[in-house]
Amino acid sequence: MALVLRTVAQSAGISLSLLGWVLTCLTNYLPHWKNRNLDLNVMENWTIGLWQACVIRDEVGTQCKDFDSFLALPAELRISRILMFLSNGLGFLGLLVSGLGLDCLRIAERQQELKKQLLILGGILLWTASLAALVPVSWVAHVTVQEFWDETILETVPRWEFGEALFLGWFAGFCLLLGGCLLIWAACCAQAPLASGHSPAAEAQCLRQHLEMRNTHLQI
Hints:
Elements: H1 2-29, E1 34-38, E2 41-48, E3 52-57, E4 61-66, H2 75-100, H3 112-148, E5 161-162, H4 164-188, H5 200-219
Helix pairs in contact: 1-2, 1-3, 1-4, 2-3, 3-4
């Protein structure tokens, strides 16, 4: 039963982590972190991301333009770029390390302690990747809320609102966090399966035969 739970936890953990990593990569590049609708022109919507701003018109379609300068961006977007890159890199490294520690992978099959350490290290890396994704998304959301309720801005001025990428980033971050937790639980709280050909019954029989041969040798 413990082996089944361990296998299920590893499979679910690595699957959630892979899903979270793919979604963080999408969140990084999607230009939908913030949306703004113009009341004077309902046929035109503005969206902004970490790398470009887009205008969506019903007649023309979507037109995007990359930001010209990194230093000209607001502080939350500059830091978000760095943290999202860090999340993507740590997530990839966590998946690679965790994959080497999975029981289904026949690498270092007899070195269960090493595979346990790889799973724990991979889980910690995935935890860090989740934090590096949740912090910028939450920061941009916080700034958006502050600007939306800023009383110093005239009511006639259009306000930025949450974009789809923020919700995608939150979901991705929690997938990475849950995946890392499952991998660490599988490494720490479940007994590792023994290498092939080394079941408890086989080891007991081998020990019994060794003792019998030793007693026979002493009698002679």
